[in-house]
């Protein structure tokens, strides 16, 4: 059973504190901004996390001051873009209304890509591959994999229908890791075969790809949407997401996690808290289900849980999966990137359909710290 915050409040009190109607309160809950729980005294009554209410009160006060609002809106701020792709709410997340944890039990990445993008030809991944050869050798980890994937995505490409283009991009991402053309083989099986891992690892790889496919407006998804909003090609939008993912505070966190697991206590603890999941990242438990963790990794997890209550994020889960099945070092990042490509494609296509340029304004501050008066908008 998940932990319940110590401080809870009623719907009337929460609404009054925020100065909103009950309908608006419920809307905040559905958007994942306020956690709700069944009352321990009356299961029919819902109570609301006071911490979340107070956070929103503080945000509302801040957003009454335009200059402060502009400076903080992109730092874990209130939602800034509308999307129909992924929703995170009450510690769960959904791809176009489908519970992702349930989806990950059986779906392939290809099926997930069709769901995320929508209106995609069902034959998209059964047509022959058009990856040009010869391909370079396998690559793993943020630096080598990103360099190889960018090279493949930057090659001249034929003009294709959307379904064929989506399939080609996903296959190129897998080929950047395996060094081989996946053809029409499901990508999780292709990777398992290329990496020469036990049969049971193929299903864990499949789950990893699905669970990593999207996560709402992450830094890399935002980079993709900004790029796509300029009218750039899908491949270039994916390159933008891939480069953003490689940073140590995003997908590159896997490298920090591996260093920690190799020598616990010698480097800062990474990847054990996620601001969207105060009670723990649900993706990690789904990812590691039935995975035979290394004894040392299982011991580390338990020690951290006992000492601080920290629960592992998806980065930790990916590295532990990599270590459990003897995947190539750096495969954790590779799985993250290949899986997330499905979401990037969905975001790029959705953004291009909105036909609007994402162009925020900056608040200039002089060398002496004095804010300058803004001029009119420029392109």
Automatic annotation (TrEMBL):
Q: Does the keyword Oxidoreductase feature in the UniProt annotation?
A: no
- Write the protein's name: Citrate synthase
Give a GO biological-process term. carbohydrate metabolic process
Q: Which family does it belong to?
A: Belongs to the citrate synthase family.
Source organism per entry reads Microvirga flocculans
InterPro entries registered for this protein in UniProt: Citrate_synth-like_lrg_a-sub, Citrate_synthase, Citrate_synthase_sf
**Keyword Transferase in annotation:** yes
One MF annotation (Gene Ontology) recorded for this entry: citrate synthase activity
CDD domains with a match to the protein in the record: citrate_synt_like_2 (cd06102)
GO CC terms, sorted:
cytosol
Keywords, comma-separated and alphabetical = Acyltransferase, Transferase
Report the coiled-coil segments.
none
- EC number(s) of the enzyme? 2.3.3.1
Please give the Pfam families that the UniProt record associates with this protein. Citrate_synt (PF00285)
């Amino acid at each position: 059973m998940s932990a319940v915050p110590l401080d809870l409040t009623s719907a009337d009190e929460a609404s009054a504190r925020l100065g909103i109607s009950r309908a608006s309160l419920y809307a905040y809950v559905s958007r994942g901004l306020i956690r709700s729980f069944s009352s321990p005294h009356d299961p029919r009554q819902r109570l609301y996390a006071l911490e979340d209410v107070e956070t929103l009160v503080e945000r509302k006060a801040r957003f009454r001051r335009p200059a402060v609002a502009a400076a903080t809106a992109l730092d874990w701020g209130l939602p800034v873009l509308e999307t129909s792709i992924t929703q995170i709410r009450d510690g769960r997340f959904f791809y176009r209304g489908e519970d992702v944890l349930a989806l990950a039990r059986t779906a392939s990445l290809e099926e997930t890509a069709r769901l995320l993008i929508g209106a995609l030809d069902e034959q998209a991944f059964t047509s022959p591959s058009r990856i040009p050869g010869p391909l370079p050798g396998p690559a793993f980890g943020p630096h080598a994999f990103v360099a190889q994937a960018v090279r493949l995505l930057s090659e001249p490409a034929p003009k294709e229908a959307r379904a064929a283009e989506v399939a080609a991009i996903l296959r190129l991402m897998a080929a950047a890791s395996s060094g081989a053309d996946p053809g029409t083989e499901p990508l999780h099986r292709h990777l398992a075969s290329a990496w020469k891992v036990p049969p049971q690892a193929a299903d864990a790889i499949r789950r990893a790809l699905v669970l990593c496919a999207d996560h709402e407006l992450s830094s890399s998804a935002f980079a993709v949407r900004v790029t796509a909003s300029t009218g750039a090609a899908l491949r270039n939008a994916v390159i933008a997401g891939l480069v953003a993912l490689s940073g140590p505070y995003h997908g590159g966190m896997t490298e920090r996690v591996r260093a920690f697991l190799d020598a616990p206590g010698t480097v800062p603890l990474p990847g054990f808290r996620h601001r969207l999941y105060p009670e723990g990242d649900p993706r990690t438990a789904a990812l590691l289900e039935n995975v035979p963790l290394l004894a040392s990794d299982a011991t580390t997890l338990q020690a951290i849980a006992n000492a601080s209550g920290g629960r592992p994020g998806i980065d930790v889960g990916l590295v532990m999966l990599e270590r459990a099945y003897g995947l190539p070092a750096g495969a954790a990042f590779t799985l993250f990137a290949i899986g997330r490509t499905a979401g990037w494609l969905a975001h790029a296509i959705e953004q291009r359909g909105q036909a609007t340029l994402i162009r925020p304004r900056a608040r200039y501050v002089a060398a002496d710290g004095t804010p300058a008066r803004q001029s009119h908008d420029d392109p």
